[in-house]
Amino acid sequence: MDRNIVVGIDGGGTNTRVMLCDLNGNELAYAEGGCASKYKDENAAENVKATIKNALAIAGRDTTSVAALVAGLAGYDSEADDVWIHAFADLPGLDCPKLHLNDSDVSHAGALQNQPGIIAIAGTGTMIMGINEYGTRTRNLDYRHYAYSAARHLAYDAVYEVLAGRPDDSDEGLIAEMMQHWQSNSLEQLQELARRGFEPDTMKRDQHFGQFAPCVTTAAEQGSSIARSVCNRAVEQLRLGIELIGSNFAERSINVALIGSVICSSYMRSKLTEMLIAHPVKQYRLVDPLFPPVVGAILLAYKELGVQADMNVAMK
């Protein structure tokens, strides 16, 4: 069988997303599966392979049809990760060229179509990455900077602020949601749960906290003083990371695409816009991502093959 399809994989966030396209930019199949991060799910590699198989089955193709595969996977940061990364797409017959990248790389390719600019991700995880006019790729992690702005970070901070005795009348709604989420009848009961470390399994604990983040951003929008304090601290760290990356650009005007449930929430986006506008030199322009990360992986697969194609996908 001719190798005439490409596979794009987005392994960021909570799910694996796989798209298959032909060489003319037409979507053939799309599938979602379990978590692709080996640091959040011990079955990550199997999840990715199962999702690839599912997408191939939907398209009525097999591995021998694949001309190129690009996978953007959370946790893949350097060549040292090559010891485990290849297992994620190790399927019989899948002998095509494979390019493994960090999930931020496919996010940037999709959001900005490989054009200069910055992506700021804050959802399940957090990352800020930019590619300047000269093609130089820089991440905030390269500076040893980390923006504590992922979903779980907001939730942890909000709970700590409440337990530390900081709430006022504006926080009643937030606290009620908190009690319900952790199935506690009182702050004393929540305090006892906290002293026991909430949940011994780190992955399960982080997932449970992450699920509470929408309550924090919504409460901030509604005027909760604790939620606003927590969100403002997170936004400040995102602002600093974006401006660090922006310092690598020669142009004064820089496009910034926001990706993820936290950073795209109404309160966080509004506050971040306000802070970035205040920069004395650079003009940061927030833009909507053109395509999701999985389409970015497809675009990079075409680039690897030297194929020019206009994307015609159902998922925008």
Can you walk me through this structure?
- The longest helix is centred in the last third of the chain and has 22 residues, at 225-246.
- This protein starts with a strand and ends in an 11-residue tail after the last helix.
- It has helices at residues 44-59, 82-85, 103-112, 151-163, 172-181, 187-195, 202-210, 213-221, 225-246, 266-277, 293-305, and strands spanning 5-11, 16-22, 27-33, 66-73, 98-102, 117-122, 126-131, 137-139, 253-259, 283-287.
- The model has no long low-confidence stretch (mean pLDDT 91).
- It is α/β, with parallel strands linked by helices.
- Helices cover 40% and strands 19% of the residues.
- The chain has a five-stranded mixed sheet, sandwiched between helices. A five-stranded mixed sheet has the order 8-7-6-9-10, sandwiched between helices.
- A hairpin with a 4-residue loop joins strand 1 and strand 2.
- The chain is built from eleven helices and ten strands.
- Helix 9 crosses helix 10 (266-277).
